[in-house]
Amino acid sequence: MTPDQPIRVVMTKWGDRPHWEYDAVYLGSDQHGDWLGCPVGTFYRRPGMEFVAPFAGVVLVPAGGEAHLAAFNDEHAKAWTYVDMTTPPVWDGTTLRAVDLDLDVVKRQDGTVYLDDEDEFLEHQTTFGYPPEVVAMAERSAAQVLAAVRAGAAPYDGTADAWLVRLMRRT
Questions:
Q1: Which secondary structure element, helix H or strand E, spans residue 167, and what is its range?
Q2: Residue pLDDT, tens place only, 24-37
């Protein structure tokens, strides 16, 4: 992929149920994975909800098949960091696909860090029939990401700042 290439992000819920979709641009890659940019004005849509973002953000598609997608936002968003636990994201041409597994690690602008949507995760294990290995993968990923965000370990150490700057320079 090349910088500024349009990318479509398609998230589903388990069982190929529609979830968030939005357009992004490819910014580049580093040792952490591929970085996508979502400028102010990005249109996000899922069943029952849509919005135009008043904030800019970058999304890290982790290297090595890790089971999450990490978003890092500017100061206009409620959360600085928002990490969705997912199946390992896969590229389908210029479309990025992943299944959202409910659990989210959130770092708010005030520095508060927490694991969100544990109730939804428990409910969907039964409702959607998550296999035991998927449950274990999501729990393992959430624990690792939560520890890394709390510790300020890379890439949750400000690494995303340079990618946000790169996004802002192109818009």
A1: helix 159-170
A2: 999 999 999 999 99
Residue type, 165: V
What residues are paired with 113 via a beta bridge? 107
Closest among 57, 52, 3 to 30, alpha carbons compared: 3
Q: How far apart are CA 152 and CA 61, in angstroms?
A: 18
Residue 147 is encoded by which pair of tokens? 């520890």
Residue type, 99: V
39 upstream amide cis, omega within 30 of 0:
no
Going along the chain from its start, the domains and CATH numbers come out as 6-170 (2.40.380.10)
pTM of the model: 0.96
Distance separating alpha carbons of residues 43 and 91, to the nearest angstrom: 21
HSE value, Cβ hemisphere, 13 Å, CA-based, for 22: 25
Judge whether residue 117 has pLDDT over 90: yes
State how far Cα 136 lies from the chain centre.
19
Tokens of 11: 């998230």
Q: Answer for the pair 53, 42: CB distance below 8 angstroms, yes or no.
A: yes
